[in-house]
What does this fold into?
Amino acid sequence: MKKHVYFFGGGKADGNEKMKELLGGKGANLAEMAGHPALRLPVPPGFTITTEVCTYYYKNGKKYSKELKSEVGKAMKKIEELMHRKFGDPANPLLVSVRSGARKSMPGMMETVLNVGLTTKTIHGMIKQSGGNERFVYDAYRRLIMMYSDVVMEKAAGIEPKDDESGIRKQLEKIMDKVKKEKGCKSDTDLTAEDLKKLCWLFKTKVKDILGKNFPDDPDEQLWGGISAVFSSWNGKRAVSYRRIENIPDEWGTAVNVQTMVFGNMGNDSATGVAFTRNPGNGENDFYGEYLINAQGEDVVAGIRTPAPINEYSKSEHNRTLVTLEKTMPHLYKELFTYQKKLESHYRDMQDIEFTIERDKLYMLQCRIGKRNGPAAVRMAMDMLKEKLITKDEAIMRVTPSQLDELLHPIVDTKAEAKCKVVAKGLPAGPGGANGQIVFTAKDAVEWARQGKKVILVREETNPEDVEGMRAAQAILTARGGMTSHAALVARGWGKCCIVGAGALHVDAAKKELHAEGTILREGDWLTLNGTKGNVYEGRLPMMDAMKENKPLNDFLRLCDSVRKLGVRTNADTPEDAEKARQFGAEGIGLFRTEHMFYGKNSEEPLFRLRKMIVSKTESERRKALDELYPYVKKDIKGTLLAMDNLPVVIRLLDPPLHEFVPKDREKLQQLASNLGITMEELEARAENLHESNPMMGHRGVRLGITYPEISEMQIRAIFEAAAELINEGKKPYPEIMIAVVSDAKELKNQLEIVERVYKDVLAKYKIKQIRHMFGTMIEIPRAAFVADKLAEVAQFFSYGTNDMTQMGFGFSRDDIGSFLQDYLKKGILAEDPFQTIDQQGVGDIMKIGIERGRKARKNLEIGICGEHGGDPRTIEFCHRIGMDYVSCSPFRIPVARLSAAQAKIKEKAKK
Amino acid sequence: MKKHVYFFGGGKADGNEKMKELLGGKGANLAEMAGHPALRLPVPPGFTITTEVCTYYYKNGKKYSKELKSEVGKAMKKIEELMHRKFGDPANPLLVSVRSGARKSMPGMMETVLNVGLTTKTIHGMIKQSGGNERFVYDAYRRLIMMYSDVVMEKAAGIEPKDDESGIRKQLEKIMDKVKKEKGCKSDTDLTAEDLKKLCWLFKTKVKDILGKNFPDDPDEQLWGGISAVFSSWNGKRAVSYRRIENIPDEWGTAVNVQTMVFGNMGNDSATGVAFTRNPGNGENDFYGEYLINAQGEDVVAGIRTPAPINEYSKSEHNRTLVTLEKTMPHLYKELFTYQKKLESHYRDMQDIEFTIERDKLYMLQCRIGKRNGPAAVRMAMDMLKEKLITKDEAIMRVTPSQLDELLHPIVDTKAEAKCKVVAKGLPAGPGGANGQIVFTAKDAVEWARQGKKVILVREETNPEDVEGMRAAQAILTARGGMTSHAALVARGWGKCCIVGAGALHVDAAKKELHAEGTILREGDWLTLNGTKGNVYEGRLPMMDAMKENKPLNDFLRLCDSVRKLGVRTNADTPEDAEKARQFGAEGIGLFRTEHMFYGKNSEEPLFRLRKMIVSKTESERRKALDELYPYVKKDIKGTLLAMDNLPVVIRLLDPPLHEFVPKDREKLQQLASNLGITMEELEARAENLHESNPMMGHRGVRLGITYPEISEMQIRAIFEAAAELINEGKKPYPEIMIAVVSDAKELKNQLEIVERVYKDVLAKYKIKQIRHMFGTMIEIPRAAFVADKLAEVAQFFSYGTNDMTQMGFGFSRDDIGSFLQDYLKKGILAEDPFQTIDQQGVGDIMKIGIERGRKARKNLEIGICGEHGGDPRTIEFCHRIGMDYVSCSPFRIPVARLSAAQAKIKEKAKK
It folds into this structure.
């Protein structure tokens, strides 16, 4: 029989940290901490219900298998034996927590129920246990009622409150506010035991009133209600939306952890805290953390009270006046310090630890690999490598591409910043700099971003409902919360600029106002954040490049280069881009789009001449326009070849359908008509003639080159003449001529004839012996992959155009996908946008076939990718795996590509 | 060393009829006739230069290998020995013909040179040989000059005459006409030896004058000129255009046959003729042919004189007054009769024979499988099967799909015809009936047809330059020529309606008038032809269905059914189409397009309601419109299920992008707006919202069903309720529900949920236990083929939508391909339009992957094709080969599909 329940506690455990798939991250680490001989830390005993139960639960109409009940019963018995308490025992009751725990951490996305087992029958036993602390017990009871009625009962009743205001939780909060007001209490802690007792009674009446059911007074009912609530929350709206963003498959499911309750809020000899074995903000090798006396864990995470530093090192401007744990409870701090050292050397990575002190006894509640920002990740990796804690390969694997990406984010221009007054200071929770317009709700953030605006989401504090808005914003700013608050955790995970706990700010979301030291900022006003320092500025400060002179980063990237096999080129359409890319480490250009050179220039001349060529009707008209266009094309190509001297430059001949270049506005049309000496009617007719029903699959790429060979010829001549001039100037240009939209080898042969003819002409004209060059093809039409053997007989290189291949592979027009993509993602039909990361199953299969057949015909065929996927880490890994020679991406993605390529190589080694 | 020249003659031959690829059809058959022990017929000795020489010639800049010259020399020697004559010998000269001969017959498409070897030095020897017939020899010489100067010299000089008038041939003809006029001659035959002698001198002067070269007087120069002219003509305009139409690869090349000249024009004891071992017009088992006394072969084919019947059987209304060969030369007729019998039993198929009688001696010049029209092909196949000449499989292989297609062509409505007066009678050269507007030039035929007009090409006689116009016309009508004239041969090959030799007609092409028994018809007037009878009618007579009560055809198709493995279904969108298709032999419906039912109805109501649904903005608006639409949809589905009772009906849910249905005209928009109670602006905005950049890959098919599940639901409900009603009426409906544009299994699962829910509802509502049905998917998105294993877990059947798969496989938008397809075909980049016949290499590979992966997941997966390719014979063969279960095509293509499926099976057996 399959085991569904894994016990841990008393120095033993059924599971271990390798069983994350089955036990979830939290469960596996609890087992490891409790049971591994090298650790055996003081973990409150408990058990984990496996993720397989979750899968079973959803497959069987939210029912459990028969065996589960008895397995849970047995595990509860074991806890009772270890704790010498009994679940539901009026004299000496056992209370438990019920928590989620997925394979990958999903902070705050699923439900938790604490204090389970507290009933009218066990309250008195509990008061006895707490040393007669009646207030504490009724506070625990009212917390249970609030949490349970919201998380379990309301959801089980199938009630979906229209808004926050109408939910049961809010109703109960209102009652509590009312009682506080009547009593003149400022804070929850001002309420007496008697007040809380009354509140519990009021709560239960309200629950019965609204939800039509009594609050359960049976501990088993509470326990199973809690378990089901956790499983149900796996498919809650928040969790599903988080999984979309984080690419977590729906099928994984969550585990449930049931664990003996320990209380950090049993008085001043109790506390709770969160700590990191190294500083997650900058990577320094020092023990770093926060704690709260007389508080429960949720209080730290929720950011309601500002936590104190655990030691001197953890002090910041923000909390430097508060007393450290090291000072108040030195023996417990020492114990904790030992444990964290043990954990880091055991796990060989920075750990994020949760602990609780109940009446002077330290309990370890959780440990996991700690999240860190990009700079910290790079520093830790390089430090641990030096400390010989990890190997070179491990160091490379320790930095995720998105962490690296953070380092490449712009930062606030230091000069501009120096001149500017800080409006507010907060905790540096997310790196880099950002500017944007203020919005006060997540919904607005999403809306505004959709309109193309840059926004900064300003909140008193964030909660899981804000996730989408946080995603949409350039940066997040909160007035409350610490480094471990929701906003900080989420932003750090994404590498997004974020400042939390900027206490000087007052956020009036209802009025849409932000009060800061006398000034009032309103919705739409500009703010600039320096997330690395925690500084908030009014207005829109300029940004600058973070890459310059970052030594650890450059060391790290060189480490990556020493490992990777895949080449990294760039997509660049101008000499300027090419130069920048070379600084980032590009080893050539994978895609130079001839047509892009016509846009974004100071002069409209080249574009005008291009347009003239396009609306030409006869070959002679067209040749005339091409002659006029020629010098512009040659100049840009020459500049780019020079910037990439001695490195390959793949130049793609004109690709998009001609009508894309026809001007839309009337004045330009008129200008064109008069220059061509034709009437507007004639010009409009010509333009109309170019119109297509499905231009994506129309007259473009090589199809243009075949019907209008003179267009290809002009470009090919420009390439060879530019190269010839450079050779005569002592340079080493290396163009690769690429044909687009190819579906048959005969198309290539047709164009190759032009290449060969022009090549001979140019050699003769410039009196040189040869120009190093290649002739090749895009592989973007699905058919091309199937006839790759034929293509490779003509082409010396392939470059995968995965944007178009995804369009045709899926039948998704990228321009039109908006009408259903959101539905597809929401309904889980697509796990992710296939234009972001390659679809390895379908499109990937087509790619593999192309490589296989191509290499069969030409062994040394050079194969790369130039679609936008080329900068996506998972795509890069895939490209490595299927044997490509290089990836090409935008200049800013090059460092990420260097890292991803190295990681791909390491993963491959690991598999062998 | 490779052999380039194959000799035949004197009862021996180097080659045989199996060597068609190397020797061409003509060469291989000459070798067989001359050399096979069972035949050894009197073939004038000669030799064949292989097709490999042609390939070499084009690969090497129109040069020959060194060995060729000596091989040809040796072969010429052998002829001289056998004939006891010498090439170029003034005393006893040998003359030869130089003819083309490709693998597949290309009648009249390439060049021929006769009388090669006739020079000023050999003329006198030749006169001696002919028994002093000076007139005959000078006539042969003037023919040589005319032919050679046109075919060899003008082309070699690179002169391309602007029009027929300015070519050398026309110039010479003008001289001849002038001489005839001077002499008062009506016909060529009236010219005396002296006249012809003078003409030769005039010709040579003109040739030198225009082409700047003397007419060659060296026999070797003549021979090699002729050989090169034939090879060059392989890439002549006419030949290339014919190959495009007939799908003959450019790479095949032609062979050249050099053969001793024999003369049918040496006097009244000489003759030439063409015969068939069975009647090619109706298939009757009788010897059938035509001949001309004192004429050369070209005279028969050119149709200048009306040929006489060879026997009583061959008599027709047209030639019944002429004397038969059987009567004039009974001994030679008997000899010929014996040879044709031998040939048919040797080749086991109807033979097309050319013969010449030179001074009372019979020579066999050619034999080949005879072309026949559709009815004849079917009859011959069935007869030969009964005669046990051929097997069942052979009988099936004897009818080509296009021949069968002829039988399915419409014929003139017999009742209407009975009432109508025949304007003219001619030879029934092409079957079926046709009506159309008169045009007088091939160019006009092409032009008018492009404008969508139905035309009849009327010509005095046709020549190879007319081929494209003949193709474009509904039918061809000529005033001259026999059953073996150019027009008849070509039309018969295509199965096109054609009447030749309608001598009562006078065609005045210059005036664009057709004179027929007193009436004058002009360009654009309507004509109706009955090609089976040879009758011409004035005006536009109605057509009727040829399939009805055609017993040999039905017997033949049943023979096919007994062999084929592939099922044949139809694409039908209405109950009427379904009924018709069932009559044609459809075994179910492979594609019922829900959206098609809205067009072409008497009432615009359903379309209006559909439009209403489409521009609905909210779900409730949409549901209301869907409710209104529901009864129409159910009615058509019910009618179709009934028409196909007990047979499967694949019903595809709404596929095309919604905006396709938005009305374009303003009045209808207004009507829609007022019915919806919205303003025109609002309606236009909604319509605008539906616009897409690339609708082919936009929001369509299952994507609509996912974003608007209520649309799927309505259709699914209509299907199940229609079926349920039929069940309760005692019928056996069998719907297969098909989802379109699928790229992932999750899309299918999403829709399957709706199907399952609605199915349960309907069963309960109608109180029935089950409705036999299937759930399946189109495979048209390339990705679908790659995830076919996943799809097959959900789908019970696949149906290949090869139109869209070709669009996406090639990246060809079918609507936009016009701008380059012609260029692609002309430049040989595409061998054929991939929307006509499936691209087996690329798209075919994708299909194979889909089948393989699909069947891996579900062994009994039903797989069919419903794209328009489903009616294309080569595609059908491919579908059989890759293991599909059925093809689906338009009702009229069903018989062709039944035949093609049987042939595919037979071909497969042959390969094993």
Summary: The CA atoms of residues 866 and 888 of chain A lie 5 Å apart. Chain A touches chain B through 48 residues (CB under 8 Å). The longest helix of chain A spans residues 619-643.
